[in-house]
Design a protein that fits this description.
By secondary structure, this protein is of the alpha/beta class. The chain is about 40% helix and about 15% strand. It has a 7-stranded parallel beta sheet with strand order 3-2-1-4-5-6-7, with helices on both faces. Bound molecules: NADP nicotinamide-adenine-dinucleotide phosphate (NAP).
Length: about 260
Amino acid sequence: MTESQPSPTPIALVTGASRGIGAATAVQLARAGYAVIVNYHQNTAAAYEVRDRIAEFGGTAWAIQADVSKESEVTALFEQIDSLPGTLKVLVNNVGVLKQQSRLADISVERFTQVLNTNVLSCFLCCRAAVRRMSTRHGGQGGAIVNVSSGASKSGSPNEYVDYAASKGAIDSLTRGLALEVADEGIRVNAVRPGLIYTEIHADGGEPGRVDRLAERIPMKRGGRPSEVAEAIVWLASDASSFVTGSFIDPSGGL
Ligand code: NAP
């Protein structure tokens, strides 16, 4: 009789996890038993706080800085993950930015490129690195990828941020295409398309009170909490959704 080997600790990488939906997702994944990488870009103190919150309830987390829109930094991030005890099982591509509310006619090429690089190139780079590790075709043991898109991919965000909406449209197509490409290689790829969620992203667009202003338009008449999006992400990452791939969940209160 062979002795059964303890299965390696499952690792989950959440990009942009120092605040908002990413932070809530990191905490919930840790509660679900994953060792979590809290990736962040600039706010070290906030990322450490998320890491410490996880440690407080006995979870495992590492805060790792990397600008995931840069190929070299994504390479270094995944090499660091390779050196950790455990196996990468979950990737949540949560990073997303938007800029000052504007009409398309006033958007510069520099801004458009920055938004697309941060929101789409980052997702491509992290998906590529994860697939190379998770895919059975590459000798991996499978895994789950959850991309954070937005209801903006359908609304187009006129008069606010068409560049952001276009980046989320690209995330939807990438999700569907990659899901079908790796469906028989042990990897499921899905996405969430949140509606209006109370986070600091709206202040970056110049309107901190945006969710409250638009709440009347939401069928449920309220904005969402980051934890309500995180619940959907964790479900898509878990074996509970084992026959779900190429799919989208819209935590949006019906918007
Ligand atoms: P948020 O509060 O603005 O947080 C953004 C996070 O991304 C921060 O942790 C930030 O890290 C990180 N980040 C930004 N650029 C990065 C980079 N280049 N590399 C690594 N990390 C980077 O955002 P949120 O509202 O939680 O949104 C999370 C996701 O949900 C985004 O994809 C967003 O588009 C999507 N979404 C949000 C809403 C909403 O209403 N909030 C609705 C639909 C979709 P630092 O602070 O350390 O720089």
